[in-house]
Structures are given as structure tokens and as C-alpha cells.
Write a structure and sequence with these properties.
Layout: E1 8-11, E2 15-19, E3 28-33, E4 37-44, E5 47-51, E6 57-61, E7 65-68, E8 76-78, E9 96-97, E10 104-106, H1 116-121, E11 133-134, E12 137-138, H2 140-151, H3 159-165, E13 170-171, E14 181-186, E15 189-196, E16 201-206, E17 208-213, H4 223-227, E18 229-233
Antiparallel strand pairs: 1-4, 1-7, 2-3, 4-5, 5-6, 8-9, 8-10, 11-12, 13-18, 14-15, 14-18, 15-16, 16-17
Length: 240
């Protein structure tokens, strides 16, 4: 039997919500980013059941992009703000594009562990958005996943999956370097994640992307997160 032909859905807006079911009244589970190639698994009227590049599955409405028999082959990735210090709505952080634009770098350029915090700091003030993965809005794990992707490693989408991914790299909080991860939750039920800025410093998406601290003596101390702090994890060894 001949194998059915594979088709992709290429996102052509800044970001496109992906839902648990083929309905706008369904829960938004993640986003697909401009230029992303999503595998189409099935159809239901104007809805497509897709698998995103990170393996996450859900339903997307067809008006967010185009069906294609070929996967998108972008040449550049939007990482930095433009000369005016902004990310465009059409091409937000993380966009895969087919030409060089201000703020973009070649798609195969990996910035490395040392650039994590400087990249993340460009996103300060970005509002929290459930399921968000771009400068139009982030949730906590989407922020971590998107920043790490442009810096050189691809990690799972959800904070609980990220905790599992880095589980064997647990370190003392005081030993954490800028770019390592702090995890939060109750009884190993992971509910939040953010980047260490070194020791008890925290750069994360909660309300908006911001810097806080788990140190009671710091003016940016977040008592609520300290109360549910679980562990810190080194991520440097995942970089090649």
C-alpha cells in the first residue's frame, strides 16, 4: 500500500493558538510561531489537527497559515529587537523567516549557554499569555523553551517535561549560574519555571517577563515562589 503524502501547515501570522479541540471555546494548549512547519495529521472543516515542531499536538484554524506539500525552509530567525528596540507583531521573537531582517540571525547560528540571559533580558516586560511562546506573550515554560531554542538546545514544551529533561542535573541553588533553571511546585507537581540569574536570582514570566529573587534580603523578593521552590538544575552540559 502506498504511503499517504505528508502535508505541512506553514504559519504566516506572528503566532497562532493551538487548541485542545477543534473549537475556539476549547483550551489553548500552545502556540505555533511565524514560519513554523506543523505536520497535518487530520482535518475537520476549517480545523487542522497538527503536530508542532516541538512535538506538541493540537488543533489550529486554517486561516492562520497555508497548507503545503513541502516543509518551510527558513534562512533566518528573529532573536533580537529591531533598531527601534521593538519586536514586530508580524515577526515576533522566534519567527522563522526567509530573508535577513533587523534582529535576525542565520537559522543555524546557535548562541550558546552564555547568551541565555542577555537574550531573555530583551524580552523583559513581555506580558504573560497562557500558551504563549513569542514576544507577543509568554507563559513560563514557553519563555524557557523559546529562549533555549535560539540559544542552541530544544527542550520539551511544559514545565513538568522540562523538569524531567533536566532531572539528573540537579544542583544547589547557590551554585546555579546565569541561565540555569529554577523549578517550583508542590509535591513534585511542577507549576512554574524560570531562569536563574545566578544563585537565587530569577528571570521568569509571571504576570510579565521580569527579574525577581528568592532571597528574602533582596528588594525583588518573591515570597510566594520561595514557598513552593523545588529545585535548581544545571543546563550547561546539554549544550554541545
Amino acid at each position: 500500500m502506498q504511503e499517504s503524502k505528508k502535508y505541512w501547515f506553514i504559519v504566516n501570522v506572528g503566532s497562532a493558538p493551538v487548541y485542545a479541540k477543534p473549537s475556539f471555546n476549547s483550551a489553548c494548549v500552545t502556540e505555533a510561531v511565524h514560519g513554523e512547519s506543523c505536520i497535518i495529521n487530520s482535518y475537520k472543516e476549517n480545523w487542522l489537527e497538527i503536530k508542532c515542531e516541538d512535538g506538541y499536538k493540537g488543533w489550529i484554524n486554517s486561516f492562520y497559515g497555508n497548507k503545503s506539500s513541502e516543509k518551510n525552509n527558513p534562512s533566518h530567525l528573529i532573536i533580537y529587537p529591531n533598531k527601534q528596540g521593538n519586536f514586530l507583531n508580524r515577526f515576533p521573537f522566534g519567527s522563522r523567516i526567509n530573508k535577513k531582517l533587523p534582529g535576525s540571525v542565520p537559522i543555524d547560528m546557535k548562541l550558546g549557554f552564555e547568551k541565555i540571559i542577555s537574550v531573555a533580558e530583551n524580552l523583559m516586560g513581555t506580558p504573560y499569555k497562557w500558551g504563549g511562546k513569542t514576544s507577543l506573550g509568554f507563559d513560563c515554560s514557553g519563555f524557557v523553551q523559546s529562549v533555549l531554542k535560539v540559544c542552541g538546545i530544544e527542550v520539551p514544551r511544559d514545565s513538568s517535561q522540562q523538569w524531567d529533561y533536566f532531572h539528573n542535573n540537579k544542583i544547589d541553588i547557590e551554585a546555579s549560574e546565569p541561565g540555569d533553571l529554577h523549578f517550583f511546585g508542590i509535591n513534585d507537581n511542577i507549576t512554574h519555571v524560570g531562569f536563574s540569574t545566578g544563585g537565587k536570582g530569577l528571570l521568569h514570566a509571571q504576570g510579565y517577563v521580569k527579574v525577581e529573587s528568592l532571597d528574602p534580603n533582596n528588594s525583588d523578593f518573591n515570597q510566594g515562589l520561595l514557598d513552593i521552590y523545588l529545585s535548581s538544575h544545571s543546563i550547561k552540559r546539554k549544550f554541545k
